[in-house]
């Protein structure tokens, strides 16, 4: 303790005994302080440190499947292959592998501590408050130089950058690129990123390192505990059963778990073994950054894991999914009326 206190005393700034010595200080601001002797200028505050994931975007574009969904297979074949490969290793090789895995775990821990995208709020991260004025007249789509089957958005012939990044917005499909271009074309006067969800998703995916995918799977599992697909509202229970039953049957057969049905208010009582089984299945899907970010956004919007997964695997289409998600709300709007400031905003979203 004495040593610690002595370090504090020694580290205190030692100011000169006379005001005239202040002239020797180096300053970087032009604001004078009129005290005694020569003027003293105050150095500006240091900007807040921004933590960014060290992601090589060019490497990411080379390794991400060009067709989103192509490699997201519900299979444990890759895990079985690795186990078989490890079983043939010598003790020395296994020891070397353990050291590599430990080093990888340390790197993952470092990246996860810096990850601020659990909520996928890319457009809400801290940055300059200056609004971007809409200056462009033409919006288009072009291929990404050096990366086959990748696209970007052009405004007046110039490539746009991802939100909160200096990297070009990279989009893995032409249809998605045109959807993002449409969002740019709909902007008026100032850029409103809250009205550009698809561009926001693509921007967020570019910041997701491989170490950041597993924590997002854990985030998805929080929706599994109280999934919207478990519950039925008594006035529209029959309609909900008709729409939700195919999803519940598919999920139960595919993931080999029980899907509860609760009329009104109740607790799903999901068994821990079911949670682990579903989590393992999600990890085995080997989703790319675009897929995991999109799935998280869909889970947030629907308060469900089952429904986005059903759309992902084409069990239901988008119109049906929206009908399922808002069946009770639409019933309340028909019987109780529309609440201004809530239902109208939901309709716009």
Spans with pLDDT under 50 lasting ≥5 residues? Answer: 1-37, 48-55, 65-75, 116-128
- Largest sheet data: 3 strands, antiparallel
Radius of gyration from CA coordinates: 27 Å
Q: What is the annotated CATH architecture of the domain at 212-348?
A: Orthogonal Bundle
How large a portion of the residues is in β-strands, by DSSP E? Answer: 5-15%
How far apart are the first and last residues' alpha carbons, in Å? 59 Å
User: How do the SSEs run, as a string of H and E?
Assistant: HEEHHHEEEHHHEHEHHHHHH
Q: What is the CATH topology of the domain at 212-348?
A: ATP12-like fold
Shape: flat
Nearest-integer average pLDDT: 74
Description of the structure:
The chain has 14 helices and 7 strands. With 349 residues, it is mainly alpha-helical. The strands form 3 sheets. It has a 3-stranded antiparallel beta sheet. Helix 6 packs across helix 10 and helix 7 runs parallel beside helix 10. It comes from Trypanosoma vivax (strain Y486). Keywords: Chaperone, Mitochondrion, Transit peptide.
């Amino acid at each position: 303790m004495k040593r610690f206190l002595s370090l504090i005393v020694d580290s205190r700034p030692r100011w000169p005994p006379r005001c005239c010595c202040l002239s020797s200080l180096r300053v970087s601001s032009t604001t004078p302080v009129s005290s005694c002797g020569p003027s003293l200028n105050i150095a500006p505050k240091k900007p807040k440190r921004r933590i960014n994931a060290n992601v090589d975007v060019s490497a990411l574009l080379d390794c991400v499947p060009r067709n989103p969904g192509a490699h997201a297979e519900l299979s444990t074949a890759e895990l079985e292959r690795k186990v078989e490969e490890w079983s043939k290793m010598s003790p020395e090789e296994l020891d070397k592998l353990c050291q590599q895995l430990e080093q990888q775990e340390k790197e993952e821990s470092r990246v996860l501590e810096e990850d601020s995208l659990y909520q996928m709020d890319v457009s809400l991260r801290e940055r300059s408050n200056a609004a971007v004025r809409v200056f462009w007249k033409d919006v288009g789509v072009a291929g990404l130089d050096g990366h086959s089957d990748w696209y970007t958005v052009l405004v007046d012939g110039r490539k746009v950058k991802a939100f909160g990044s200096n990297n070009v917005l990279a989009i893995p499909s032409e249809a998605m690129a045109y959807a993002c271009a449409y969002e740019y074309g709909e902007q008026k006067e100032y850029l409103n990123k809250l009205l550009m969800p698809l561009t926001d998703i693509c921007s967020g995916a570019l910041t997701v390192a491989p170490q950041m995918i597993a924590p997002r799977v854990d985030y998805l599992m929080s929706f599994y505990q109280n999934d919207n697909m478990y519950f039925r509202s008594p006035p529209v229970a029959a309609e909900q059963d008709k729409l939700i039953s195919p999803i519940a049957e598919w999920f139960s057969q595919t993931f080999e778990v029980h899907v509860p049905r609760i009329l009104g208010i109740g607790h799903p009582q999901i068994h821990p073994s079911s949670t682990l089984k579903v989590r393992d299945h999600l990890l085995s899907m080997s989703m790319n950054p675009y897929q995991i970010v999109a799935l998280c956004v869909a889970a947030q919007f629907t308060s469900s894991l089952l429904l986005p997964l059903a759309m992902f695997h084409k069990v239901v289409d988008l119109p049906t999914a929206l009908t399922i998600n808002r069946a009770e709300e639409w019933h309340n709007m028909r019987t109780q009326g529309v609440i201004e400031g809530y239902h109208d905003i939901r309709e716009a979203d």
